[in-house]
Amino acid sequence: MKPSLLLGALRDPGSVRGLGLVQWDLLLRQADRAKLTACLACLFDDAGVSSALPAPVDARLEWARVAMRRHTDAVHFEVKRIQAALAGLGVPVILLKGAAYCAAGLAPARGRLFSDIDIMVPKDRLPDAESALLVHGWVGSAQDEYDERYYRQWMHEIPPMQHMRRQSVIDVHHAILPETARVRPDPARLRAAAVALPGLPGVQTLAPADMVLHSAVHLFYDGEFDNGLRDLFDLHRLLGQFGALPGFWDHLPVRAVEMELARPLLYALRYSARLFGTPVPETTVAALGSAAPNRVLMALMDALLLRGLQPAHASCNDSRSTIARTMLYIRGNWLRMPPVLLARHLFHKAFITKNTSKA
């Protein structure tokens, strides 16, 4: 497929010099759909091209910068409120994904906006964590009895909880993949390797390799790719930052095999390198060789993912994009549920939940 304007700007921020206003309008529309507008603003600032942007573009990006700063402040505030609410548990609380990037000051945090805060606690402490959050103003938001059962019986998290006053949302996980998934990385191993956050007693993030693996499995085991390009760019920036750590590239494939996540890591490295030019050592890819699909399946995944990872904007689609996204949605659910449960879940979401929401 022809690279989108957004992808070109993410790969080389300096390439935007000389764009006309019509092209800028399209680029910003693509960025908005991919939730990467604030990220673009940061990239342009870092590359020294912000001063050369057309006035309307600079004004639009300044709004994004303001939103980013307010978002960052809000995340730090909410993390401290969560820390206070769960301090009595006696077990570390692990921040995941965007909240972890933000709290730890990692590269993907710059310009990354997200709607909820993900945390992980041991499964046997879920009732205690939920009760503590309820006392501090967060309430469950399951839509119906089916959703309640779906989360608590089959998923790797309880239903999202929303604060009654501030409207902030927390997803409380006990693992990084559902109970019904084909592979189930051991949460105890993730917790054992977790890293403490300075200044936040009792709060941790995943270790560098585990953070990359979680980002990879979240992207390539999920069926919805609306934020796929943003999540892949997270991986690109994580790999760029952690790749400078001694021994990281040797440890990463070993940890992936240990956690049964070699295939999603292989995809993460492949598409991050193809779309963003991420420098991945050949020895790391070679160490994952046994996890690689056969040539036919890899060609199919290329056809699907190189479309699914594009911004969800009409200008980035071709005649097969809709089919690709549909197949990726089915694949993601297939990897997370056994066939009978999958059929039941899709039927419920397509007909029962849909009709209930209309009523």
Give a description of the structure:
The two termini are 41 Å apart. The C terminus is likely disordered. A seven-stranded mixed β-sheet has the order 3-4-5-2-1-7-6, with helices on one face. Helix 3 packs across helix 4, helix 9 packs across helix 11 and helix 9 packs across helix 12. The radius of gyration is 21 Å and the shape is globular. Helices cover 58% and strands 7% of the residues. The protein has one domain. It is an alpha/beta fold. The protein has 16 helices and seven strands.
Number of strands: 7
Low-confidence stretches: 355-359
Helical proportion, percent range: 55-70%
- Helical segment count: 16
Determine the N-to-C terminus distance.
Answer: 41 Å
Layout of helices and strands:
Blueprint: H1 5-11, H2 21-34, H3 37-47, H4 55-86, E1 93-96, H5 97-104, E2 117-120, H6 126-135, E3 138-140, H7 145-154, E4 161-163, E5 169-173, H8 187-193, E6 195-196, E7 203-205, H9 208-220, H10 228-242, H11 248-258, H12 262-276, H13 282-286, H14 295-308, H15 321-336, H16 339-358
Parallel strand pairs: 1-7, 2-5
Antiparallel strand pairs: 1-2, 3-4, 4-5, 6-7
